[in-house]
Fold:
Amino acid sequence: MGLFSSCLRVNEYPNEPTIANAKLQLEGDSAYFYVDFIDGDGNVGLGQDDTTGSFADCKTKYNLFCEYQEKINGVWYTLSGDPCLDPNAVPFYYRVPWATPPGQNKTQKGTIKVLMYPAYYLPGEHDTCRFVVTLCDRDIHYSNTIISNEFIKP
Structure:
């Protein structure tokens, strides 16, 4: 009689988040933004109380950064302001909530869905748009930067 044992292979991912497939989807008068992500140590997301210490700074109180761009004469220009520099800017910075992975494998893998705010206001007068996207985890590790799909403003 023989004894066999096996283990499920656990995929290992870097501790820095990785993002892919950013897209904006228009639904009536609202817009939703989707981005796929993987984080090896499972610390993407901010809790309600993550507002002091490392998270008190303007740049780290958010963890999903979507820089709004419009195409003007074939060249992309960033039109969304940085709320850390200009309090009147229309930022597309968000706080993705913390979701703790169950079990021993703390890898997070999923899709973030954000209702675009403020009220789906897209500044600028040109119609072809996109977002440049970055995600940050609680260890202040920034992801790769990706570009969303191009879309035409309604």
In short: Residues 18-152 form a domain with the Immunoglobulin-like fold (CATH 2.60.40). Residues 89 and 125 are 16 Å apart (CA to CA). The first strand starts at residue 18 and ends at 27. Residues 1-6 have pLDDT under 50 and may be disordered.
